[in-house]
Design goal:
Keywords: Cell wall, Glycoprotein, Secreted, Signal. This protein has about 375 residues and is mainly β. It is built from 1 helix and 30 strands. The protein has 2 domains: about 180 residues, Sandwich (Jelly Rolls), CATH 2.60.120; about 160 residues, Jelly Rolls (Sandwich). Strands 3, 7, 10, 12, 15 and 17 form a 6-stranded antiparallel sheet that branches. A hairpin with a 2-residue loop joins β13 and β14. The N and C termini lie far apart (about 45 Å).
Length: about 375
């Protein structure tokens, strides 16, 4: 990591001797996941946390600050949930021991914000094993974004660690962290009416009830577990946004995906097909009623086929149906959805078309049933 470019890493580590209280993972905030349980005043030197176990339910290491309506110079440091958050300086970390079910998949959702004037250079990453998931772009006008990351539990007790391995001249120029939550992920099955898993995006990461900005799902390696079961996010550095019906207009059901990074990211799923057989893919394209006004284009790809769907958004909600027919050329076919243009809201934040209710069927009567496993 280059000097002057801070980053954050999320790690799940195997626990050793059980020397601290273990939290049992249930969907929602981790115990004191919003840091509203405060350190004792005797454990603070201004904003700097002195004791290793000073923040209830968390263990800290390195330069960690407890932010409670604080200012950095003339800049106010608001937090997205409640009044408090933590800031991780150079090589600082916070961690909590949690109890899981082995071989079960989980998604972590957490909020992060950059703080210092050098914010444009901030490179925030989520790392697990050898996987690096960069999340360096800010997608909200507040500066806070929520991110999701998924894993399969290999042990019943693990440390959940959030670590900033960055090196800054000012150790206080690290990211703010707030609202750390966990969710157990199910594994949606393919059905007789849809060869795609989780085509309606109803299964996904935890979304904070009061959050109006959704959850970013960063790019991942093909072997990583996805916070959107069944789907991969293919990109170098950009994310897609997972949105919910209470805060956005969703074409179908309660959840959808907003393609906020133009051509730089794609939503991908691989499905078993029979070479030479014909298939039909259906999907919705719309807008999230978040003020994103633009002529939007979503491109669908599969095998040798592609289909462009244009949707003229007025930023107030709405959708249309897209369709693509193709003939499989291999036993495995990648289905891809991608926004072809970049869009911004009036406040300058990135936005894009919403996709939802993606289905794939064999158009040969009776053939689909034999393909589903």
């Amino acid at each position: 990591m280059a000097k002057g470019t801070p980053c954050m890493a999320l790690l799940v580590l195997l626990v050793g001797v059980a020397d601290r209280v273990v939290s049992t993972a249930t969907d929602g905030l981790l115990p004191n996941g919003n840091f509203e349980e405060r350190p004792d005043k005797s454990q603070l030197n201004g904003t700097i946390v002195k004791g290793r176990f000073s923040i209830p339910r968390w263990e800290i290491s390195g330069f960690v600050e407890y932010i409670d309506g604080q200012k950095q110079g003339e800049m106010v440091l608001p937090v997205p949930e409640g009044a408090c958050a933590v800031r991780l300086g150079n090589d600082a970390s916070i961690r909590q021991k949690i109890n899981l079910t082995r071989r079960t998949e989980y998604s972590i959702t957490f909020s992060a914000a950059r703080t210092c004037a050098q914010a444009e250079k901030l490179n925030v990453s989520v790392i697990f094993d050898s996987g690096l998931l960069p999340i360096q772009t800010v997608y909200t006008s507040s500066g806070w974004d929520s991110y999701a990351w998924a894993f399969r539990a290999k042990h019943t007790v693990v440390w959940l660690t959030i670590h900033n391995p960055g090196v800054e001249e000012d150790p206080a120029c690290g990211p703010l962290i707030d609202s750390v939550a966990i969710k157990t992920l199910s594994r949606p099955r393919r059905t007789n009416s849809n060869m795609l898993r989780n085509g309606d995006f109803e299964e996904g990461p935890y979304i904070f009830p009061g959050s109006t900005w959704g959850v970013l799902v960063p790019p991942m390696d093909e072997d990583d577990f996805s916070p959107l079961p069944g789907w991969m996010i293919m990109s170098d550095t950009k994310s897609v946004k997972y949105v919910d019906a209470p805060h956005h207009r969703v074409p179908h059901g309660a959840r959808a995906v907003e393609l906020v990074a133009g051509r730089e990211t794609a939503l991908v799923q691989e499905v078993a097909t029979v070479p030479g057989r014909s298939y039909r893919m259906l999907f919705y394209v719309g807008d999230a009623a978040n003020g994103c006004e633009a002529s939007m284009i979503v491109m669908a790809y599969a095998a040798r086929a592609s289909q462009q769907v244009q949707y003229d958004s007025h930023g107030v909600g709405g959708h249309k149906r897209g369709k693509m027919d193709f003939v499989a050329v291999d036993k495995l076919t990648r289905v891809v959805l991608q926004s072809m243009n970049y869009h911004m809201k009036p406040d300058g934040t990135l936005c894009g078309p919403v996709v939802d209710d993606v289905s794939l069927v064999s158009v040969r009567k009776g053939a689909a049933r034999r393909l589903f496993r």
